[in-house]
Design goal:
Elements lengths: L3 H29 L6 H17 L1 H44 L24 H10 L1
Amino acid sequence: MHTLFDFITYIKGVEYIVAISAIGLYMLYWEILKPKPFKSVVETGRDDMRHIRRMGYANAMKTIGKVMAAPFIGLAYIVALPIGFAYALGSAAINGILGLAGKEASFGWRPSEAYLSGKKKEKKEGEEKKENEVE
């Protein structure tokens, strides 16, 4: 350990190991204090094995695969966050610039706007003249 960062990282690692060990030892101690130690653990294990046999080992392996895939899915989410932030920042900047120019930009789906009767269409010059002549 040559730097403060190395020392702090080492100490944090030791703290986590001590904390997890203390929790595990407390759970073991609590189980030993019961009138019939480890009875509930054995019953729970038997129930789990019966469930696995009833549902099939393929289903259990599928569940294990999903659990093992979870960190990678989380990593993909973390990698996608800056991309989403950049998109949101870019669209806000473009809308701000166009807002100064008196224009509006629309990027895809907007759930807050519901045009239940359809979006109003802009009339062309020829249609306006026809409506004025009819009136």
